[in-house]
């Protein structure tokens, strides 16, 4: 079954290294999507130097995309010597991942009067890449306080549509969270805040080991996993070896 997913990755605790790690996760999921033959489209990005990201939001679509990635939501922790570390010390940093199912407009009612939409230039910081037309879209949903944006498309209309896709997914997730709380669980427990102590998975470079703390499984060959070889982890969560 073809499924559409909103993937949101944010740098957590750890400064520049957290942003670099977020970038590593972006590339890991993008390569995994390529291996699975899924569509991949960036919606909103906030890059940093050294190939990092403060925020990266993408839309994925393909056979079993949500079923394969839903367990990725949470705080991912990395332990390694950062590129920016001169004394050779191992640092611990985090990034948060949210995997949200894309929902149809009819499933989430949004009143236009509840939206505050602003436009800006979509380009980067200077140079020829700056977009001289205000195509980037930022939408505030007043009742919830949620802010979403899109800047990768060439027109205001296209970026607004992408931003609305994110908004619908987040509002739908709030509804799911409300239902989950009634059952005694919380979305906060799934995604966390990005603090080092809140983690679902640790990428330990000194020991070349990836540990998922929810199911107690460990895998080696970190570089291979970060190169998009997520199948062993996905299979473990789907009950296969």
UniProtKB/TrEMBL annotation:
* A Pfam short name: RF-1
Looking at the record's lineage, which domain of life comes first? Answer: Bacteria
Residues annotated as domain Prokaryotic-type class I peptide chain release factors: 121-137
This protein's GO cellular component annotations are: cytoplasm
Q: Which family does it belong to?
A: Belongs to the prokaryotic/mitochondrial release factor family.
The UniProt keywords, alphabetically, are:
Methylation, Protein biosynthesis
Q: What does this protein do?
A: Peptide chain release factor 1 directs the termination of translation in response to the peptide chain termination codons UAG and UAA.
Q: What is this protein called?
A: Peptide chain release factor 1
Q: Which Gene3D superfamilies does the annotation name?
A: 3.30.160.20, 3.30.70.1660
What are the GO MF terms of this UniProt record? translation release factor activity
